[in-house]
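Notebook B, p. 112. Complex prediction, attempt 2.
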Amino acid sequence: MSVITYRQALRDTLRAEMVRDDNVYVIGEEIGLFEGSYKITEGLLNEFGPKRVRDTPIAEEGFVGAAVGSAMLGLRPVVELMTINFSLIAIDQIINHAAKIYGMFGGQTSVPMVIRTPGGGGQQLGATHSQNIELFYSFIPGLKVMAPSTPAEASSMLRAAIRDDDPVLFLENLGLYNSKGEVPDDYAEAENDDVATIGRAGVAREGSDITLIGYSRMATVANQVAEKLQEEEDISVEVVDLRSLRPLDRQTFVDSVKKTGSAVICEDDWLTYGIGAEIAASIQEGAFDYLDAPVRRVAMAEVPMPYAKPLETAALPGVESISTAIKETLSAVGKRVG
Amino acid sequence: MADTAKPKGGSAKASGSRRRNSRKDTSGIANENPDALLDLYRRMLFIRRFEERTSQAYTQARIGGYCHLNLGEEATVVGLMSALRETDYLYTNYRDHGYAIEKGMDPKRVMAELYGRKDGVAKGWGGSMHMYDTETRMLGGYGIVGGQLPLAAGAALAVSYRETDDVVMCQMGDGTTNIGAWHETLNIAKLWNLPIVFVVVNNFTGMGTTVDMSSAEPDLYKRGSAFRIEGERVDGRDVLAVRDAATRLVERAREEQTPFLLEAWSYRMKGHSVVDPAKYRTQEQKDEARAKENDPVAIFGDQLTKADVLSEEGREEIAASVKERVAEAADFAENSPHPDVSTLFDYTYATPVPNESRRMPADPVFAD
């Protein structure tokens, strides 16, 4: 095993897939000469040349759509959208085209493409650059949506996404690029394994008192919460990392809730109509008789994200707010008095 | 620039002067292969009758949804498709029935798609707006205005990536030249040297909004100039003119590996779709759109008759065979089975993965 950053896991895996398959190419703004806004594509232009590392004008609808069209002819584009906020410019091509072409034409042509894009608040980027709108894509049949939280997941899930024949929205996170984690030594070239499976959640940490569910950055925050509560309060938290937002692996978190009897969901998006709402609804349907307390959601404050640091910090869910929700839930259950 | 006819980009009324220039010199016909001319005529008439049958089937509720016809655009459709090789790719908007047939799809299966049947080209999943066939490389009719443009550029990018000599043709209506995808796509097509021909079928009306109402530059063929894309305008009522202009640009795109723009103007004989009575048109405009002198099938038939290529007998024979084939298509569609409901989840994903939802509306989320 070695310890690498989430960024390096993505970069090395992307490179390895480009070496493996000539049909894989990368396309997006500032990915070549500039080497990527977040340096995921560093070195690729030098190694593969401009044909396979295609810098684009600032024209998200145009280049995302062009990637879709090239995928219809069998290329396997990996699109980089500088942030998920900019996907709104390309949303017609993602939802009305990439997601529809396979079904709408009776299964004649698949669209094997990946759209890599980071979400994530907390960087003082203000209202239009701090949104987490993966929900829009998770809502759409025909798309697959993946959200890795660790370097190991980032590597194996990116590989799975590139090798999949359907359009995959691959959610990264600004706050995770520098995070480190263990990966197998041959991570970049490894064949698919269980970590990578699209449509499967994972139990990131076993526990018995309560289930804490998150994805992407919030899965890593969930692990921190679990560790802290174990140490400080002797609370045993089971952490479920969703990994795949569509398809959604309901069974994994429902099984966990059946074991623990209660659940808190932490999400970086807004609460109302958010991904947590779907998780909570699924829990009540799948584990109604096992629930000892209402399912709680910890989510962003429902405001356009402010710039000023104290306001931004207050708006975001974090270790403190999640811990509070867990302790309140367990108090209600009567297991603990928080 | 082929700019002999000069639509002012507005209502049909505003550009009525075109009619006086519309009579084509038939001398060019003498140099053409008579059988090839008759073939063009037969194909145009086929689209005319096919679309009339489609309209009828729609009003009989055999066809549902939105349904846009190529009536009045037969010369444009046939002329454009005559310029493509079988291996060239085609993307169109939702007014796609004629293109699908002309690109090589079996009309029976096109009609079956309109009927939403199992034997339809898209197995009944697409309908009128979404004809598609990988074999004939008609890569889709698209319902979102402008949506097909980036896709077509992407197909051309793949052609360029693989260094084959295919060309992509991307058809659209006049209204499309105002949407963002137009500008983004033309820019990248030129920037990346893509072998693609953009074709604007200008019938002067985007639904009910005229080109004058919507385009600050109503000479649509000029609208590639911001991207240094050469444009031409052609009389879309003239099948030979369309064929020649399209062939020239398609071959230049193939040779020079760069995009071109062709504007073909003609009349939309009926409303925007089958159900649109076109009340926004004056009687004069309606008369003009349906006038014999603007009817591409009538124009070409008369030219061929004058040139002694098409006899009265030949005309009847072609009409009878077209009628028969259209009837066959309708019969085929009528007798094709509806898609089986058990196939509902077959085309959501190409690569199966765990936890795909196969839940019917009343099913619980957890089936067991």
